[in-house]
Amino acid sequence: MCRHVAYLGPPVRLGTVLVEPAYALYRQAWAPRQQEHGTVNADGFGVGWYAPGDPVPARYRRAGPMWADPSFTDLARVVRSGSILAAVRDTTDGSAPDASAAAPYGEGRWLFSHNGALPGWPGSVAALAGRLPAEELLNLEARCDSALVWALVLHRLRDGASPGEALADTVTEVAARVPARLNLLLTDGETIAATAWGDTLWHRWERGSHVVVASEPYDDAPGWTRVPDRTVILARPDGIDATPLKEPPV
């Protein structure tokens, strides 16, 4: 299992979102408050952010725990961005142990994270992998369930699906084959798309200012709203749209 968070709004230091709040992602690496599967997220972490004038985000990813990387806390102290996506990782059995498997994954303007697991991976979803073109399978960022989910989402984005459609259709397709937990985060630096499927998801929206979507609140300030399970949301600083997800066919 994992924890993740995405922010859109006025530029802030990475640490303002990821390190400094009382229950920030930094603390969730060893003491998440709402995680229902797994206890410690020390198998890797990553942060992606967008710089003004550049649609392609930068990424910083490591295989170890967030708290053990002084370079990250130094980076988070000075780097500013108006669009951030970050995650801490609790690996699925059989997955790659290196930084390549740490979210966020990315291509072009996209950043992506998966909070969840595909039980029985990889055999349980071999048929799904077989539906992808060979070139896309060979270009998986890592050998892990999250990288496969990202490949399925990216395939739909390349085919012209909207962010919400790409996430919703991928969740339905995967959940029809395996009892997976599929909380997904996707951003292009302007919109956050997310799904709640099997674990906690929250958002906090300050009208006209900023929006945060996260596995769990990073502080106890008012304004956090729990996203119902089986829901896809689209979040921007000007508002949040939520749509129930269809149950997959039996």
Task: Describe what this molecule looks like in 3D.
The structure is a single chain. By secondary structure, the chain is an alpha+beta fold. It has one domain (2-244): 4-Layer Sandwich (Glutamine Phosphoribosylpyrophosphate, subunit 1, domain 1), CATH 3.60.20.10. The protein is built from seven helices and 13 strands. The strands form two sheets. Strands 3-2-4-1-10-9-11 form a seven-stranded antiparallel sheet. The chain has a six-stranded antiparallel sheet with strand order 5-6-7-8-12-13, covered by helices on one side. Helix 6 packs across helix 7 (163-175). The protein is globular, with a radius of gyration of 16 Å.
Q: What is the average of the pLDDT values?
A: 92
- Per DSSP E runs of 2 or more residues, the count of β-strands stands at 13
Give the DSSP E fraction (strand runs of 2 or more residues): 25-35%
Strand order of the largest sheet: 3-2-4-1-10-9-11
Number of individual domains = 1
Shape: globular
* Helix residue percentage: 10-25%
Number of helices: 7
The second-level CATH architecture is 4-Layer Sandwich
Give the name of the CATH superfamily: Aminohydrolase, N-terminal nucleophile (Ntn) domain
Alpha-beta classification: alpha+beta
Low-confidence stretches: none
If you compute it from the alpha carbons, what radius of gyration comes out, rounded to the nearest whole angstrom? Answer: 16 Å
CATH class: Alpha Beta
The sequence of SSEs as H and E is EHHEEHEEEHHHHEEEEEEE
